[in-house]
Amino acid sequence: MTKPLAGTSDKPNKKSAPKLRDGVMKRGTTWSYVIRVKDSETGESKPKWVGGFATEEAAKAARDEARVNARRGEYVDRNEITVSEFLDDWIEDHAMEIKPGTLEDYRITIRLYIKPFIGKAKLQAVRPATITKLYRDLLSRGGRGGKPLAVSTVVHTHAILRRAFRDAVEVHEYLSSSPVDKAKRPRGDWREPGLIWTPAQLRTFLMLARSHRLYAFFHLAAYTGARRGELLNLRWPDVDLEGRQITIKGSTGVVDGEHIAGTTKSGRTRVVTLDEGTVNVLRAHWEAQEAEKLQVGDVWKGEENGHVFTTAWGGPIYPTTVTALPGKLIKAYNEPEDRSQIPAEPLPYARLHDLRHIHATTLLLASVPVHVVAARLGHSDPAITLRVYAHVIRSAETAAADVFAHSLQLNEGT
């Protein structure tokens, strides 16, 4: 048996153990720090390890912040933070930068579809499989009474989680990577708008609405494609009847029973042109509103904000009021008390938002350029218009083939 050479050993080499330097150490592919934290009840000081940092610099920065908080008695063990606790802090941080309606939507989604399923889990224990299982549970029993939840709602929940966990990585540095990005989520399909009235059916509806004091609201919705909240937020100073245009600057909604004004969905102001008939409708509406002011007198509440559409005493209109009215008008038309007045062709039921779809579809079928339609609708990118109204674009493309062939035939004859 040969002896090992001098200065060598027959024992296998061992990897050098990670070294702790000033409270920071690399563990595997990530960095961790350790500080001593005094227990508020016992007064005993114990080491607290916190890991998951992508770089040594990130671990050191978090260590320094934790040391300061520990001296103040404000240290929070990020290893113990639950999903619920993180989302509560996260939503409060975002309260100042997103619209009130969106904020309320986030709160409801978190309360109904996230907290009941993974709220008690430790934030750092959440894995892609955790999120994937959440989506499966929501799809099978996440709705009211344990019923399946719509795919669109699960996709919306995913969008909120993706944003929140991305901040957990990039802003709070609680995690080194987001488990949401690697989770298996249901494929969200862009639903094409449902029922689209024909021009004749739209004329029938507007005829029904003509006798109502909010007729101008529905006319403007159909002839501009503006959203409900945008029209309820519209002020008279933003209506230029001589220039035949309106400027849409914001939107209004109701949160916890209170009217809240915010930006448009895209966050941009836009100018929408009007036809002469719509200008006349708005003039008639202004005159009717002036008459209501005289009748109500000092009780009128509309002078402060100058809204175009108000209640009979000048107050703001609840969105649900204008949403519910089309259904009532259509039902009264289709099912009149006088059975002899039943229409030969009932008017199909449609939502208020369908007036926006009618506007877009009619323009696209009339070969108005997509970017022009997108500008009128307030889409931030024409690609959104193309995606939502793909069926209309396909129909126009079919006609385009015939137009091209016909054009060549005409040229050949000259």
Q: Main attributes?
A:
414 residues, mainly alpha, DNA polymerase, domain 1, hpI Integrase, Chain A, 3 domains, three-stranded antiparallel beta sheet, 47% helix
Overview of the structural elements:
The termini are far apart. The mean pLDDT is 85. The chain is built from 14 helices and eight strands. It has helices at 56-72, 83-93, 100-118, 128-141, 151-170, 199-209, 215-224, 228-233, 276-296, 319-334, 354-365, 370-377, 382-388, 390-412, and strands at residues 24-27, 30-38, 45-53, 239-240, 245-248, 251-255, 258-262, 270-273. The protein has a three-stranded antiparallel sheet, covered by helices on one side. It is mainly alpha-helical. The chain folds into three domains: 24-80; 83-182, DNA polymerase, domain 1; 202-349, hpI Integrase, Chain A.
Q: In brief, what are we looking at here?
A:
The protein has 414 residues and is mainly alpha-helical. Helices cover 47% and strands 10% of the residues.
Quickly give the CATH architecture of the largest domain: Orthogonal Bundle
Q: Would you tell me which CATH topology of the largest domain applies?
A: hpI Integrase, Chain A
Describe the global form: elongated
The largest beta-sheet arranges its strands as 1-2-3
CATH C-level category of the largest domain: Mainly Alpha
Main beta-sheet strand count, sense and barrel state:
3 strands, antiparallel
Strand content: 5-15%
Oligomeric organization of the protein chains: single chain
Q: List how many beta strands DSSP finds.
A: 8
